Automatic annotation (TrEMBL):
<dbReference type="InterPro" id="IPR045017">
    <property type="entry name" value="DECR2-like"/>
</dbReference>
<dbReference type="GO" id="GO:0009062">
    <property type="term" value="P:fatty acid catabolic process"/>
</dbReference>
<keyword id="KW-0560">Oxidoreductase</keyword>
<protein>
    <recommendedName>
        <fullName>2,4-dienoyl-CoA reductase [(3E)-enoyl-CoA-producing]</fullName>
        <ecNumber>1.3.1.124</ecNumber>
    </recommendedName>
</protein>
<dbReference type="GO" id="GO:0008670">
    <property type="term" value="F:2,4-dienoyl-CoA reductase (NADPH) activity"/>
</dbReference>
<dbReference type="InterPro" id="IPR002347">
    <property type="entry name" value="SDR_fam"/>
</dbReference>
<dbReference type="InterPro" id="IPR036291">
    <property type="entry name" value="NAD(P)-bd_dom_sf"/>
</dbReference>
<dbReference type="Pfam" id="PF13561">
    <property type="entry name" value="adh_short_C2"/>
</dbReference>
<dbReference type="GO" id="GO:0005777">
    <property type="term" value="C:peroxisome"/>
</dbReference>
<keyword id="KW-0521">NADP</keyword>
Length: 314
């Protein structure tokens, strides 16, 4: 169903900003990534979102398309980011449908709370494959199209005027702040996100000469997302919210606005950067599992009142 614009985009940006542009997004049916894509579609882009769940991905694509009359959003389910061939096929379908890919959001991810003692080898491997390998596969499958888009949308180095065709050739990796100070019960995701940050920085250096920009958006605790449901027990949410420096959780609109900033002319000289959108939360420590530390570790128990919790699996 259509969402009010205020739920996913501020009034700062002008309509038509991304007219005739195409965005490709992995994890596009998720709460954060769908808001990012919805904002771009509202501002003129067409989109292709991919995910493993066919019904969920197709339903979300139809929903995102309501952001703008005439918008085209292709939802491709049954896509496993761990398989390059699966991703490459979806990229080819996107280009066949829309003719190009100008922007990429690598947002597919997995997370749950587990101590290292409770974290099996397969569980650790799964997160690494979805987050790190999945992001790399996304990059490899889309980078030829991003290079082409960057060449068509160059900023004039003498006048600094943007191309009359607008911007293009940009990729955002969705990361996190968990590894900045270390976070208990999040070793798997911390390692994966650190790898994603490093990957983006290298992309910025290797493909910058070809006009491509690469950046990371690192969300903090974002309200009404599956990530928050998985990481903060339901009986600790109010206290966790009060402990945030700004006294609130972030919103998906905060992440969507950051995405627009990086993809628009405003981000033309921003590359190889990590844009943290967390209201200074990470500087206080993540707070994840804080009230249970170290008692939970010493007891060998698992988290309660969270989605997707992992039982001991040594």
């Amino acid at each position: 169903m259509p969402l009010p614009k205020s739920d996913y985009l501020s009034d700062t940006w002008k309509d038509g900003l991304f007219a005739n542009k195409v965005v490709f997004c992995t994890g596009g049916a998720g709460t954060i990534c769908s808001a990012q894509v919805r904002a771009l579609v509202h501002l003129g882009a067409n989109a292709c979102i991919v995910g493993r769940n066919v019904e969920k991905t197709e339903k979300m694509a139809h929903d995102i398309a309501t952001a703008r009359p005439g918008a085209k959003v292709l939802g491709l389910g049954g896509v496993d980011v761990r398989s390059f061939d699966s991703l490459k096929d979806s990229v080819d379908r996107c280009v066949k449908e829309f003719g190009a890919i100008d922007y990429v959001i690598a947002g597919a991810a997995g997370n749950f709370l587990a101590s290292i003692s409770q974290l099996s080898i397969n569980a650790f491997k799964s997160v690494m494959e979805i987050d790190v390998l999945g992001s790399y596969n996304t990059l490899k499958a889309t980078i030829p199209h991003l290079v082409q888009s960057a060449q068509k949308h160059k900023v004039d180095s003498n006048t600094l005027k943007p191309s009359p065709l607008g911007t293009g050739g940009r990729i955002i990796f969705v990361s996190a702040t968990l590894h900045y100070t270390a976070t208990p019960f999040q070793a798997h995701v911390s390692v994966a996100k650190a790898g994603i940050d490093a990957m983006s920085n290298t992309v910025a250096l290797e493909f910058g000469p070809l006009g491509v920009t690469s950046n990371v958006i690192a969300p903090g605790p974002i309200a009404s997302t599956e990530g928050l449901e998985r990481l903060v027990p339901s009986d600790q949410k109010e206290q966790s919210k009060k402990s945030q420096p700004l006294g609130r959780f972030g919103s998906v609109r905060d992440i969507a606005d950051a995405t627009v900033y990086l993809f628009a002319d405003t981000g033309s000289y921003v590359s190889g950067q990590i844009l943290v959108v967390d209201g200074a939360s990470w500087r206080m420590g993540s707070g994840i599992g804080a009230s249970n530390y170290p008692d939970l570790l010493l007891s060998g128990d698992t988290f309660r009142n969270v989605k997707g919790k992992k039982k001991s699996n040594l």
